[in-house]
Specification:
Rossmann fold; alpha/beta; globular
């Protein structure tokens, strides 16, 4: 995907395990990657802060939105505060990032790409993940609605849906799990890089499972 060479791409959540993997793949292909600072330096659920971050970027070819958070527990024990926090960290950050990315991508006049991150429970419901899955379902709906809205502008919008990702933190939390079945950040990054590339000329509005054997 040499066509990413010299193109400007934004990445939110770029300092996490998945984000570092994504940035490494994009940079290896020559992209100029602009990584959003993590909270508390930048809060992408704050409208003014999201606007300011994207406004200071050069015109973008693509924007990749990895910011998110996870919580689980029985619905009867889930507080409204937890539910709302999941909505803000997953859905609101995606909404604001997508909106500002569209403005930045339109400046190039050549189309572009947006890639979001939803989650496996959107397609394969799991117990005790109602708040998280509801927030990620919002990401999925944003992705598919925006894909239809922007198709005539050649701005293609997709989302990847990981399962539990093979990271040091997840291994430490689940030491007895089958870690070999979990998708690795580098594997997910390859899928994201394709969706964000000019080589992707057809795929839009897709919710792409990236959980393999997990």
């Amino acid at each position: 995907m040499a066509s990413l060479a010299g193109r400007h791409l934004a990445v939110t959540g770029g300092h996490g395990a998945l984000g570092r993997g994504v940035c490494a793949v994009l940079e290896a292909r020559g992209a100029i990657v602009h990584v959003a600072p993590d909270p508390p330096v930048l809060r992408l659920d704050d409208e003014a802060q999201a606007e300011a971050f994207f406004a200071q970027l050069p015109p973008l070819w693509a924007s990749i939105h990895l910011v998110g958070g996870f919580a689980m527990g029985p619905l009867a024990e889930t507080t409204l505060a937890v539910f709302e926090a999941q909505w803000r960290v997953n859905t609101v950050t995606c909404f604001l990032s997508c909106r500002e990315a569209v403005r930045a991508i339109r400046k190039t006049g050549e189309g572009g790409r947006i890639v979001n991150v939803a989650a496996r429970p959107v397609l394969a419901p799991a117990a005790q993940m109602t708040a998280y899955a509801s927030a990620k379902a919002g990401v999925a709906a944003l992705t598919q609605g925006l894909a239809v809205e922007l198709l005539r502008e050649d701005i293609l919008v997709n989302a990847v849906l990981p399962s539990l990702i093979d990271t040091p933190a997840n291994r430490a939390a689940m030491p007895d799990a089958d870690h070999g079945s979990w998708p690795r950040p580098a594997q997910i990054a390859e899928a994201i890089a394709f969706l964000a590339s000019p080589e992707n000329t057809l795929t839009t509005g897709t919710l792409l499972p990236v959980y393999g054997r997990a």
